[in-house]
Amino acid sequence: MGNINASVDLRRDGEIAIVTVDNPPVNALKHEVRAGLTEALRQTAEDAAVKGVVIACAGRTFFAGADITEFGKPPQAPGLGEVIAAIEAMSKPVVAALHGTALGGGFELALACHFRVAVPSARVGLPEVKLGLLPGAGGTQRLPRLIGPEKALKMIVTGDPIEAREALADGVIDEIVEGDLAAGAIAFARRVVAEGRPLRLVRDREDKLVAEGFADAAETLTRRLRGRDAPAACVEAVRNAITLPFEEGLKREGELFRKLVTGDQSKAQRHIFFAEREAARVPGIPEGTKPRPITSGAVIGAGTMGGGIAMCFANAGIPVTIVETGRDLLQRGLDRVAANYRATVSRGGLGADEMERRMALISGVTEFDAVGSADLVIEAVFEEMDLKKRVFADLDRVAKADAVLATNTSTLDVNEIARATSRPQDVLGMHFFSPANVMRLLEIVRGAATAPDALATAVALGRRISKVPVTVGVCYGFVGNRMLARRSVEAERLLLEGALPQEVDAAVTGFGFPMGPFAMADMAGLDVGWRIRKGRGERNAIEDALCEAGHFGQKTGKGYFRYDSGSRTPVPDPEVERIIIDASTRLNRPRRSIAQEEIVERMIFPMINEGARILEEGIATRPGDIDVIWVYGYGWPVWRGGPMYYADQLGLAHIRDRLSFYAESSGDDTLRPAALIRRLAAEGSGFA
Ligand code: CAA
Ligand code: NAI
Fold first, then answer.
1. DSSP H helices in 80-212
2. H helices, E strands: number in the chain
């Protein structure tokens, strides 16, 4: 009894032993924890005075899973499988006491216990698929036995956790403990002992193992996960639970896990997991800097972005005021927000009462002075410098002292905007991505004068509203759009040289993006860029010709592709082919057939080159920050780890040589490899 080791404590409350693990911050099941648990179980098994055991965790959560930092290192006994075997070998009831998030190996450990109790706020889940893995500690065999293969597969393939109430209804947990968890779990164990309840292990249950509905569920769940190894392995493992004896299924699960954990996809996904967390550490924010408290927000402009941003506040329970120039525009914006919520309600993603609660947090006004009570203001008016400066001058007049003043601009100079105020230290960019209530990425743009605590406030708020904040510097297009612009130039060049939109898009989706550049352009609309170019006296040979022929994108049923009425599926269009060939002829560009491999290189390598320049200029802090931006903002396939990680896998010497080749053949000097790539390639190293 007492301390087993630095992470595991064993004490007794009468006839019930309590094993408490304390491994901050998330009680990952590192080696010391596994060793301590094994020893605690051994002692309790031998102690005749102990009649039942509770396993609980200190701190903010029950075990959040295996220790991801141990993956790829030599395994150290006891493994999690051995801890689990020791639990199942106990002849005394073992009760898992869950709070926070019981995830991955943590939830799997709980599934091996005889009983599970949880506080109402607890959540349980198997998120391994998000790391390119499958649950490797019996989860694919035990969960189907507990809740049936179909529902288990859904939890395992989506990786999304469920709430305690749902877990109770499904029989995943046995009781919800209101009040003190440890006391409740001990009382529960005592009752089990007193009643002499039978100790039935999940592994021995067979009644829910029906094959019906499984194949359809597998097909639906994996349809959109092309190219990924882990979901397919999850399906195979859960199917094994139906078709193979438990031990055999467990063995196959272990084999599949070992294959995935050493594979390239999981390594890339683990890179993104840690890069995302690293991005939260922003250089230049001194240790101990306190974010300013945010209890209310304001959004200026109820357009596409303003409405979505207001929803982000409301979704996180923060009251927000939207300011518009007129009542009609305001009403239209609020109606769009309500319609968005209604769509989620009708899909079953939100309760009607919850929608009401969130709508009640959003108020709309036409009086600008109303922003005076907000702790943080986000401007989302038209992309015009003079207008933004006027709005910020007004903000300077009415915003309260210490309010953080943010702009959602996609391209404009945040420093110039900040200079329109007398408090540039409070000004920064918060660049959301469309649709703002859905897309996870948030580029936070640090201005030359932005104060560390203002920046820390924006980062903290970003996390609070469930975004992935990445801090970047001021430049045209910041990180994501600046790199994307390189891809757009190359995409047009490919069309002029002989490719068709469907070929370019197929190469890009084949690489793993959910959408190609031309389908994306059709979705965004081609006319906006056309009008901007006209204003600036610029030309784009193909896109201008398309717009002149009324091809504005999905909104007109034709753009780079044709769209049947009511459909969003792009269909190749012979008229577009003619417009493209005409453009090639007009510009004297001979057409040739272009291999998919070349298209992929030309869609990706120029962006990597721009990423390298962004690093050289210090606009992004780390290559991993750029990777996170591309995964969360632009649909870069997570299992390829982001553009800079991908470049490192291919080797920078290869990237350098191919860029030099394309620069020569096109005569475009911007394709010459960036100095950083040349230096790192010469050193034989990579970005990371
Ligand atoms: N192993 C090691 N470190 C972990 C970890 C894990 N499983 N989970 C989180 N951490 C670390 C994070 O890297 C972070 O470290 P820094 O502070 O140094 O950046 C710290 O714990 C806190 O994490 P978050 O910032 O993410 O904290 P949060 O409160 O926002 O979220 C969480 C907590 C929901 C648990 C989230 O961290 C999470 O989703 N973790 C991963 C859970 C997971 O994938 N578990 C499955 C692991 S694989 C497995 O278990 C295989 C198996 O079948 C045996
Ligand atoms: P939008 O045209 O849909 O909305 C702009 C809204 O601002 C309009 O409703 C307009 O009435 C209102 N407005 C104009 N002047 C105002 C004022 N003085 N006070 C209050 N409201 C005013 O534009 P959208 O697309 O929402 O873009 C807004 C900003 O977000 C722009 O800076 C844009 O560059 C940026 N952005 C847009 C993205 C997109 O995909 N649409 C993505 C990321 C950023």
1. 80-88, 105-112, 139-147, 149-158, 164-170, 181-195
2. 28, 18
What is the distance in A from the centroid of ligand 2 to the CA of 400? Answer: 23
Of the listed ligands, the closest to the CA of 130 is 1
Average pLDDT of the chain to the nearest whole number: 97
In degrees, to the nearest 5, what angle opens at C-alpha 466 toward C-alphas 460 and 472?
Answer: 55
* Residue to mutate, 305, 336, 484, ligand 2, most ligand atoms under 8 Å from C-beta: 305
Taking residues 241-247, report their average pLDDT: 97
For residue 256, give the ligand nearest its CA: 1
- By residue count, the chain amounts to 688
Cβ count within 10 A of residue 221: 18
Alpha helix positions (H), 223-263: 229-243, 246-261
Residues 6+ apart with CB under 8 A from 523: 515, 553, 554, 568
Give the whole-angstrom CA distance, residue 616 versus residue 100: 41
622 CB-side CA count, 13 A? 21
pTM of the full predicted structure? 0.95
Q: How far is the CA of 63 from the centre of ligand 1 (A)?
A: 9
425 CB under 6 A from ligand 2? no
pLDDT of residue 1 exceeding 80, the answer is no
Edge-to-edge strands of the sheet including 101-103?
Answer: 101-103, 123-125, 162-163
Buried b (16+ CB within 10 A) or exposed e, 57-93: beeebbbbbbbbeeeeeeeeebbbbebbebbbebebb
Q: Which residues contact 391 (CB under 8 A, 6 or more apart)?
A: 300, 379, 381
Instruction: Kindly state if the Cβ of 466 falls inside 6 Å of ligand 1.
Output: no
Asked whether the beta carbons of 540 and 495 are under 8 A apart, the reply is no
Judge whether 93 and 199 are in contact, CB under 8 Å: yes
**Ligand 1 contact via 156 beta carbon (within 6 Å):** no
Task: Sort 207 into a burial class: Cβ within 10 Å, 0-12 / 13-18 / 19+.
Answer: exposed
Label the pairing between strands 8-13 and 16-21: antiparallel
Q: Is the CB of 457 under 6 A from ligand 2?
A: no
Whether residue 408 has its Cβ less than 6 Å from ligand 2: yes
Closest ligand 1 atom to 130 CA: 44
Q: What is the pLDDT of residues 475-525, one digit of tens each?
A: 999 999 999 999 999 999 999 999 999 999 999 999 999 999 999 999 989
Distance 50 CA to ligand 2 centre (A): 66
The catalytic site residues sit at 108, 128
316 — pLDDT class (breaks 50, 70, 90): very high
Which atom, in ligand 1's list, is nearest to the CA of 136? 53
Tell the residue number behind the tokens 């029950």, with chain if given: 62
Report which ligand 2 atom has the smallest distance to the Cα of 305.
26
| Cβ 105 under 6 angstroms from ligand 1 | yes
Q: In which order are the strands placed within the sheet that holds 115-118?
A: 2-3, 8-13, 16-21, 52-57, 94-98, 115-118, 175-176
Residues contacting residue 500 through CB under 8 Å, at least 6 positions apart: 572, 576, 577, 580
